[in-house]
Every structure is written in structure tokens, then in C-alpha cells.
């Protein structure tokens, strides 16, 4: 994401938000609220050999719900271009989807980098680039990436608390 080519001295827009989203190695979105990370695994009931009285359950299929977040309007075109890879209007019948690179891995960081999650094989199933045109409302984009799994980034450790000696100096 090209931050501010016209005003390069401007401070980053994402510092005041608690949650930051990064893809392609750069921060692309930030907000104060991200939807729940929900993963559901279906179970199938079966019985073992001669024991017909006790059913057992085994995992079958796991589904990860899409994540949703809102961000303030930015001059960033990367999100817009990425969202357009799923369906490109006017590309011709059968060539609307660019399957070569429409999936990306994301990284969601929380707080003063207290926690981070890697989110795999994402693509935008919903992208509202322009909010309702209301002069009294906030200008917010809505992004909903589908994903195929996630894991906690174990490389992020708990930040050290300031000690009394470091505060005094």
C-alpha cells in the first residue's frame, strides 16, 4: 500500500486503531472492531463393531466463518483492486474471475502488538467501497474476507511491562 505519495511526512492513519490488518507485507486496514473468529467442526455419529449400545463421534469437516471489519475511507487502491479480482465486470464470459492471485494471506494484529493471527487463503466475498451517502455519518468501508483457516502467530510475545526503574529514568 502506498501510504502518502503526495504528503510523505503525514503520520500513518492506523496508529490510533486497536486492530490492524496486514497483507502483502504492508498495513492495509485498521479499525476498532473485528468480528468473531469462529471455527466449527461437524461431527458424525457411528458405532464400533459389536458394541451397538454406545455411539461414538468423530470430526468430519471444519468450517471457518468469514471475518468482517470496517475501516475509514482511504486513498488505498490495493483493497479495491484485490476485491475486483474475484469478479471483473466486462472481462467476458468465463474470464470474470482471476484465480491466479485472488487469494492472499492476512495478518491481524491486536493492540500494542499483544496478539497476532495469521489468516490463510483469503478473498473478499463482500466489499462495500462507499458507504451510504449521509453527511452526518462516518465514511466507512466494509470488508468481509472469506478464509480457509487461521492460527495464532507464536512469534508475537507478551510485551514487557515498564518497571519502576525504567519509568524514573
What is the fold named in CATH at topology level?
A: Pnp Oxidase, Chain A
What oligomeric state is this?
single chain
Query: Overall 3D geometry?
Result: extended
The helical percent reads under 10%
Which CATH architecture? Answer: Roll
What structural category characterises the helix and strand content? Answer: mainly beta
Count of DSSP H/I helices: 2
State the end-to-end distance. 38 Å
Q: Compute the CA-based radius of gyration.
A: 21 Å
Largest sheet properties: 7 strands, antiparallel
Low-pLDDT residue spans: none
Order of helices and strands: EEEEEHEEEEH
User: Regarding CATH, which class?
Assistant: Mainly Beta
How does the SSE layout of this entry go?
Blueprint: E1 19-23, E2 26-31, E3 39-48, E4 51-64, E5 69-72, H1 78-84, E6 104-110, E7 115-128, E8 140-146, E9 150-152, H2 164-168
Antiparallel strand pairs: 1-2, 1-6, 3-4, 5-8, 6-7, 7-8, 7-9
In brief:
It is built from two helices and nine strands; from the N terminus they run βββββαββββα.
Amino acid at each position: 500500500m502506498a501510504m502518502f505519495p503526495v504528503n510523505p511526512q503525514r503520520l500513518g492513519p492506523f496508529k490510533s486503531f486497536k486492530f490492524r490488518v496486514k497483507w502483502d507485507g504492508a498495513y492495509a486496514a485498521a479499525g476498532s472492531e473485528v468480528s468473531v473468529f469462529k471455527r466449527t467442526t461437524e461431527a458424525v455419529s457411528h458405532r464400533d463393531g459389536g458394541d451397538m449400545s454406545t455411539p461414538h463421534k468423530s470430526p468430519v469437516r471444519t468450517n471457518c466463518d468469514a471475518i468482517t471489519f470496517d475501516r475509514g475511507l482511504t486513498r488505498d487502491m490495493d483493497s479495491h483492486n484485490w476485491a475486483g479480482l474475484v469478479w471483473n465486470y466486462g472481462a467476458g464470459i468465463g474470464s470474470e474471475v482471476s484465480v491466479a492471485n485472488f487469494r492472499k494471506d492476512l495478518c491481524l494484529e491486536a493492540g500494542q502488538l499483544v496478539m497476532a493471527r495469521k489468516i490463510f487463503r483469503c478473498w473478499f466475498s463482500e466489499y462495500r467501497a462507499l458507504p451510504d451517502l449521509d453527511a452526518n455519518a462516518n465514511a466507512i468501508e466494509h470488508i468481509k474476507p472469506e478464509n480457509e483457516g487461521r492460527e495464532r502467530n507464536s512469534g508475537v510475545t507478551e510485551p514487557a511491562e515498564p518497571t519502576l526503574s525504567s519509568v524514573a529514568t
